[in-house]
Protein: Molybdopterin biosynthesis protein MoeB
Organism: Thermodesulfobacterium commune DSM 2178
Amino acid sequence: MLSLEDQERLKKTKVLVAGCGGLGGYVVEMLARLGIGWITVVDDEVFEETNLNRQLFSTVNTLGKKKALVAKERILEVNPDVVVNPILTRIEEKNAKEVVSGHEVVVDALDSIPHRILLESVCEELKIPLIHGAVAGWYGQVTTVLPGDRTLSMVYKNHKEGIEKELGTPSFSPAVIAGIQVCEVLKVILNKGEPLSKKLLYIDLLNQEYQKIELHF
């Protein structure tokens, strides 16, 4: 599937994952197993008991520990050649540009719509592709925001909160959505296939229906 040249390209790539919870944990591990050479993990939270049902790095032994630091420990066991750079903070107006700079792709695994919009804005300014994913109950969505798309600003313009608080998140939905996000990361880095730019892939796992929605700006 991947040539030696492709693998060498991945090893030289720096990817930032914003959030290391349900989506982010799976994304970080898949990126490491794929051979991404540098992964920055941005998260200021610790694992809590309520995370045990769905977050890959959450175990009884990691409760109370910083998610980003646990991610680094885990990835060193999986692929010690990967550099994992944990940043124990939230992406805010005051630090966003500094944190995001220097990466070739950013993955949105956040659970806050205002922070997603901020991340999109900074990635646009720095001309960095952003891979967005979101999960709620049986459902999820993925889109690739190329510089200038402003997709999240349009999708979330009438929303301040997601519906995950109402529907909850099971164990399987984050894994599915994270896998699609990592696929989009790979496509962007290697310039293969057609990314989900100006398209929203909507996933209904209850009925196993997948809909690719064309977004008109």
